[in-house]
Amino acid sequence: RVVLHRHRRSSRFLRIKQIQYQRDHHSGGGPLLTLVHLRKNETFAQLGAGFAISQATAWRYVDEALEVLASWAPGLHEALTGLGEGDHVIVDGTLIPTDRVRADQPYYSQKHKNHGMNVQVIARPDGTPLWFSRATPGRTHDLTSAHAHGIVQACLTRQILVLADRAYQGAGATFRTPYHSEQPEHYQQFNRDHARLRAPGERAFAQLKSWRLLRRARCSTRRIGTIVRAIHTLMTCDYSG
């Protein structure tokens, strides 16, 4: 299995190298075009004009690169490999804002008062992202998402302690959430310590949203999960050598 896994990752790496060569050779900057799209959130018309290619070609180059990069992002069980009893992670959710209208109720988050897609993250204690989930409609509750993506069961199986906010109350298993504010003082101290340990998890989303495309996505909601996984690959993988 290890050999097969390494072979698959090696094949993906070679595929990325192929794309880099082909795009560099034919258009003078395919990988750079993709990075510009993600970093600056420019339209495909703007990209095409800037790189002297057609709008359709710009879309095709970016789409192909994103698919390859997304395929290299770790799955949930791969991300938790090596973690077990005695370890802890931070789980949180965020909304990727999208351009939607009032009629798109499944995408409207009451919590954030905005339309978008819900994405979950599992992060190390220092805030380094280990895994991002696929995107679900913004109306999806964080606890519902945690169950649907298998986060609760996966962490329970490995006996990994999970620090999460009040949105995950009721998850049980190995999840730890703050107490209600009206509890006695020693519970309030627990809440303060819990918040201090959980705070670095916000860095994972801060890193994610440093890519401007995810501050206000204009693309199809079906593509957001692919974009998030592609960015995660760019954030964490080393393609040198």
Defining key terms:
14% strand, 2 domains, alpha/beta, 7 strands, 241 residues, 10 helices, seven-stranded mixed β-sheet
Q: Please tell me how large the radius of gyration is.
A: 20 Å
Order of SSEs: HHHHHEEEEEHHEEHHH
- The shape is elongated
- By DSSP, the count of extended strands is 7
Any low-confidence stretches, pLDDT <50, length ≥5?
1-7
- Overall pLDDT: 84
What does the largest sheet look like? 7 strands, mixed
Distance, first to last CA: 24 Å
Which structural class should the secondary elements be placed in?
Answer: alpha/beta
Q: How big a fraction of the residues is strand?
A: 5-15%
Number of helices: 10
Number of structurally distinct domains = 2
The share of residues in helices is 40-55%
What would you note in describing this structure?
- The chain is an alpha/beta fold and 241 residues long.
- The chain folds into two domains: 2-72, no CATH class; 76-208, no CATH class.
- It is built from ten helices and seven strands.
- It has helices at residues 2-26, 30-40, 44-51, 55-71, 76-79, 142-148, 151-158, 185-198, 202-208, 221-236; strands at 88-97, 108-109, 114-123, 129-132, 136-137, 161-163, 175-176.
- Strands 1, 2, 3, 4, 5, 6 and 7 form a seven-stranded mixed sheet that branches.
- Helix 2 packs across helix 4.
- The chain is elongated and about 65 Å long.
- The protein starts with a helix and ends in a 5-residue tail after the last helix.
- Mean pLDDT is 84; it is low at 1-7.
